[in-house]
Amino acid sequence: MATRIIEMDGPEPRRRFSDDDKARIVSEAMMPGASVLDVARRHRVCTSLVYRWRRTLLRDGVASEALPLPGAAFVPVEVANVPMAPQPEPLGPGVVEVVGPAGQRIHWPLPSTRGC
Hints:
Blueprint: H1 19-29, H2 36-42, H3 47-59, E1 95-99, E2 105-109
Helix pairs in contact: 1-3, 2-3
């Protein structure tokens, strides 16, 4: 496998984010169930930057706190009347069963199970 070497002259240039980019990233991080760490990684920024942008946007009134997740609720479920598949008969001690792809079954006894 080939190795690729990239030479860089000096530090990586500082990235600049527009106010719209900051608001979009912060709103994504504030969605119910979202992880700030996951959002930050996806946009290649550190989490402290997302928290700082959120604090600034909340202070300036541009963003509002995310709504809490709704509580747990029961959902009605209807169970279908499906017949159960027949269960195979239990094997005796020391018997091995192999089921083939077409459903064929092969049984053979083991003379001793101590070596297993």
